[in-house]
Amino acid sequence: MGIPAAFRWLSNKYPKIISPVIEDQPITLEDGSTIPVDTTRPNPNGEELDNLYLDMNGIVHPCSHPEDRPAPKDEEEMMLEVFRYTDRVVNMVRPRKILMIAVDGVAPRAKMNQQRSRRFRSAQDAKEKEEDKQELIKLLKQQNGGSLSAESLESVTKKAFDSNSITPGTPFMDILALSLRYWCQYKLNTDPGWAKLKVIISDATVPGEGEHKIMSFVRSQRASPDHDPNTRHVIYGLDADLIMLGLATHEPHFRVLREDVFFQEQKARLCKLCGQKGHDAQNCRGEEKKKDGEHDEKDKGVTLKPFIWLHVSVLREYLEVELSVSNLPFRFDVERAIDDWIFMCCFVGNDFLPHLPALEIREHGIDTLTKLWKDNLPVMGGYVTKDGHIDLERAQVILDGLAKLEDGIFKRRKEQEDRREANNKRRKLQNENNGRGGRQSGPSTPRINGHMNPSQGMALHPIASYPKPEKPLTHDMIVNRSTAPDANVANKSAASVLKAQLQSQKSLCTAKPADDPQESPTALGKRKASEIEEEGSSTTGTPGTTTPAPATEEGPVDEVRLWEDGYADRYYEKKFHKDPKDIEFRHSVARAYVEGLAWVLLYYFQGCPSWEWYYPYHYAPFAADFKDLAKMNITFEKGRTSRPFEQLMSVLPAASRHALPEVFHDLMLNPESPIIDFYPEDFKVDLNGKKMAWQGIALLPFIEMPRLLAAVQGKYPELSPEDSARNERGRDVLIFSEGHESLYDEVLTKFYSKRQGDSKFKLDPKKSDGLSGKVEKKDGYVPHGELKYPLERKAMPDLDYDRSVTVYYDFPQTSHTHKSMLLRGVKMPKPALTPSDVEIIRSKANRGGRGGYGRGGYDRGGYNGPGMSRGNQYGRSQNGYGRSDGHYQSRGPPPMPPPPGAPGFGIGVPPPPPPPNYYNNRPHDNYRGGYSGGYNQPRGPPPPQGPPGYQGYGGHGGQSYGRGRGGSGGYRDGRSYR
Fold first, then answer.
1. Is residue 836 a contact partner of residue 317, using CB atoms and an 8 Å limit?
2. What is the pLDDT of residues 598-628, one digit of tens each?
3. I want to staple 229 with a disulfide (CB 3.0 to 4.6 A). Which of 225, 311, 697, 823 is the partner?
């Protein structure tokens, strides 16, 4: 769903959904040879898994421009990296039935807007790197006596791989498709663990985003009468939307596999410039790397990042408890409730719609909507969604409730920002007064046009006056920049690295204290937006190079001022350039947004409802602008799927035209081109109240598809046969080996024997081990031939005799919609939540869902009062201090100690008491506010005969108000927790 920081938020709130992957490693012998992992052995994770789905773009991107080592030199090295990474993933999952590899194909029009924004900004970053490169060449020549070796010059000026090439229709994607087919056939011939595996490859010529092609496959199999409802599914990918998609299948045995995004936080930091240990970036002298061993053999390779499981089944358990509403006038259906929760997640951000201004995931936006949903579910008379369709009248109820909260949300947000800024300034001033310029807590030094502003009081020196380094810069120093752990440091151009290195040397020679830990943002480089989002970064920091930031610490002027009266008028005037009195326009924006919600939900539950629909604005409306939704009649036309070159012309900037046939270049460059306005070289990025450029909104013109199609299709007659082939739609292929005897014999008999019949037939699930669908004979393919490695350098072997078979594959056609229900015969997983967990979840849910401290923590959100202690509550915090019960350990800072007297904490040592006024609590208040975020404020006792469940009152000691127990209190309507 593309929700920023969603994975971190989910794993913090629902800690038991995460567990580490247990992974066998190859054994290295003394002679340097290795014994590979035997995947025929039982899965070390304790459960055999059936189907593995790879969202392949999540593998191709990090392999083509990695963050922790130098980038591959060319496409062939990239393919080898893809093979190694994919092999590792398959080895740890060990699927027994199906491996599906899905590469992003042509996307729906609604997705192209986001792709266009990303690719234009990527090109702008590349342009800035090129400018850095030219400046670096001058610096290098001055540092080395006016000359530079040919090798060094080549290393600096070498052009980096353009990640925009990872788009359907480019030559790179052709190479990827050929390579993946070869590698899968090779593994089916050589790896015993693959013997009975069926491999489905959906490459970039097949329309659709990779993860949605996977979900279409899952839904198609689920609709088959032969489907096993207890199939164990695993999907690999980096997008948070995979979690929502897994929930939307209503297949309870579903896991998401991904790298551990918290691993980097624990990893020891190395120098950001040279990748060596023992010093940090500001103390880097650019010395040559010291060899560890005669041939540096003791320090080769990069530590493998661990992987983690996200268990959708456990998330379902959490949601079942949290979303439960008693005393409903209708039957509570957890499957329908989960669908409504997915719908509410759409409001905080996805790849197709901007999030509503009042909702941020870090501000508990989903919790806010969940509470509104629970409060209104009894009066709504039913659920908001059904099988991906929205009941607009009920959705109106939720939005009306949010509209009443908007003003308060904006004012609280401003108050929190002001407090944060004041704290940052206070810490900065304190550091200055203490005589140390430590790493700034406040906003980083601003940039102007991509360059750093000098700090106050810093003397500027001409380049010519730079002291020479102890050793001249060498070719080895330029190219040997391995293992830098920060995002994009190893992969950034040599220009950026060495320019920062020279600046570091200069700063060392200007009497900078050795203990000054301040790091130059230039040296650190820009970080991937996704990584910063996952870290839950606050909005402090340098806006980055993509957008010039103002030269003041206060950042850009916010002309809308959501916290002040009249914000709606200012918002539509400044963002939409509309008359504030034009109320009908606001409602039209809201109606378009509702169409978008309907489109997104259908996309996630049923498949793409329209290939041509898109949201035509850069900004979202306010909740107060949604009016008369019940009167809307939303329908979608399936429309036309774009061809690959049409998508490329829609999303690529002119700087990436090398990925397109030359006949299209003139359309992107010629001032007289009928579509030249689609390719601006410069464009505004509206930070929209944010601090970082990647958080801003690229204000690119929307593509007018009829005008683009007329221009692009006019060039089709000029295409070469090879280029025309790249513009055609492809098909999924199914590959399997003779080890799958029943399927192998059936296909060879029907396609390649004297008794062969039609070129297409329907699979028998009994012979295909449960796989449904149709297969078709592949044109020009003959089995048992030679398997040739498709790339030039022959880094992998050819095989004289290929024992695998390749056929075209079509998903089974279904006559009914995907139903939000468990299938008959399903056996639910063993519950992961204990009764104690359930009580805690209910307690937090009735406090608005904002409890919890870190990933797990104490009682995950609240202490129950001195009069009610619960045994091992603090000693077995399945993710906090104490024993971990075998679950994934807490990451990041440890939780604060529990209140005094909490039994079972850690190893039995009584913890210190909290400060009297910790987190806004007063000494006479209970501890819940102190340990769950400070929501308790002093208030008088409840009325003697007041309504049950006095709202928000936790209780003193062992007493409670309403009918709750102990200090934990009851439901706000007076019901007890149990």
1. no
2. 999 999 999 999 999 999 999 999 999 999 9
3. 823
Q: Are strands 804-810 and 233-236 parallel, antiparallel or unpaired?
A: unpaired
CA separation for the pair 587, 576 (Å, rounded): 13
Ordered DSSP codes for 607-640: S-S-SS-----SS---GGG---GGG--------P
DSSP string, 469-512: PSS---HHHHH--TT--STTTTTS-HHHHHHHHHHHHHHHTTT-
Contacts of 33 (CB under 8 A, 6+ apart): none
Which residues pair with residue 349 across a beta bridge? none
Reported pTM: 0.76
CA distances from 576 to 215, 554, 565, 616, 621 (A): 36, 25, 19, 11, 10
Q: Sign of the C-alpha dihedral, residues 218, 223, 224, 230?
A: positive
Q: Which residues have a Cβ under 8 Å from the Cβ of 624 and sit 6 or more positions away?
A: 403, 406, 568
Is 17 within 8 Å of 10 (Cβ atoms)?
yes
pLDDT of 234 reads: 99
CA distance 542 to 526: 9
- Phi, psi angle pair for 592, to nearest 5°: -65, -35
Element of type H or E holding 752: none
The per-residue pLDDT for range 332-367, each reduced to its tens digit, is: 999 999 999 999 999 998 899 999 999 998 899 999
d(CA 163, CA 160): 9
- What integer pLDDT is reported at residue 499 of this predicted model? 58
Residue 326: count of CB within 10 angstroms of its CB: 9
| Weakest-pLDDT range from 262-266, 296-300, 335-339 | 296-300
Length of the chain (residues): 978
Mention every residue, 6+ apart, whose C-beta is less than 8 A from residue 321. Answer: 833, 838, 841, 842, 845
DSSP state for residue 738 in the 8-state scheme = T
